[in-house]
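Researcher: We're teaching a course module on how sequence relates to structure. For the next exercise, students receive a sequence and then see the predicted structure as tokens, so they can try to spot secondary structure elements on their own. Here is the exercise chain.
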Amino acid sequence: MVAARRQAAAADGSSSSTFNVLDYGAKGDGRTDDTKAFEAAWAAACQVEASTMVVPSASVFLVGPISFSGPNCQPNIVFQLDGKIIAPTSSGAWGKGLLQWIEFTKLKGITIRGKGTIDGQGSVWWNDSPTFDPTAQDSTTNDMINGELKGSMPSTKPTALRFYGSNGVTVSGITIQNSQQTHLKFDSCTSVQVAGFSASSPGDSPNTDGIHLQNSQDVVISGTTLACGDDCVSIQTGCSNVYIHDVNCGPGHGISIGGLGKDNTKACVSNITVRDVTMQNTLTGVRIKTWQGGSGAVQQVMFSNIQVSEVETPIMIDQFYCDKSSCKNQSSAVAVSGINYMNIQGTYTVKPVHFACSDSQPCSGVSLSTIKLKPVQEKHSLDGPFCWEAYGELKTSTEPPIDCLETGKPAKAATQSNFESC
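Model: And here is the predicted structure for the students to work with:
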């Protein structure tokens, strides 16, 4: 049957550069394991420059962990996603320590586009489930992968969709929902375009970042809607020349640079622009967070035209970031300099501004203009702006007044080697 479908495709001339997963044995019924069909379609598409691998509409494809890998593939492949891809929900389908569900690696000119959906079915990872004993009953491979046999999931939660070591990456139009952990990750990629993308998971789903960037340069994210249980966008070390605009964020933790410098590591982030963003019911708005003990620098960042609604803390720099009850006090820190906030307006629920900078590496070159932040309700218990070792300039009056910002430059300037090392 599969061979006949391929011959029919060849007869109408569609197989020369188009590779439909149905022609490679995929059932698209939402129950049969279609992983091998996807692998076969990719192997064929990989050999043809500017080919298109098609995941058609009106079908649901159950796919286990899979890697669409170069570097021996031809360039400019399109992954046309119009149907729905769902993840297995049983522990037997996942290996231990698996870091991603679907990945594209070491490719040149890779595009994933369409109106389709990738569904991580993450609730089985977020919630505890009974321990599965594989010796207790017999099963087939399909039983294991389609979720008929439930069990506790591996402790390592995978990223839903990851691009690694690739150049010229485009993600357009698709939706990723209910990711096991991060929805969309770019690691060691260059020339990345994300447009018209949506991420959707409940606000209480743990560690479900919308878009995660690390060691990636020349990235543009636009026209996206991100609703998740962690950072809408997370920008990590090694990122530069990142432009984020026309993004709707919430629920989630806002748009964050960091956490950087964990475990005394060096972190370098530069030339980041975030503008024309709306945020609703998020933990923070725009945030820079670093661990004590790190080195390196965050420099040349612009946050502008940010509209916030019922955001706990719209503006934050936290150089004492800690994700547990207590962390060791350390003097070294990732230097933070040249951070600009322009036209940030709306409502907050806890505190308008929080600048907690390092004693040894004070924040410098922090500028604010046209900041208008009001409490959702006038409560005496709400905190005002907080600043510690933060230096810069108020270019306009602000609401509320951010009088705690120190003017000029810190007496103990950031170690120049921090910036030079980046």
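Model: If you want an answer key for the exercise: The chain has a mean pLDDT of 91. Residues 2-127+142-420 form a domain with the Pectate Lyase C-like fold (CATH 2.160.20.10).
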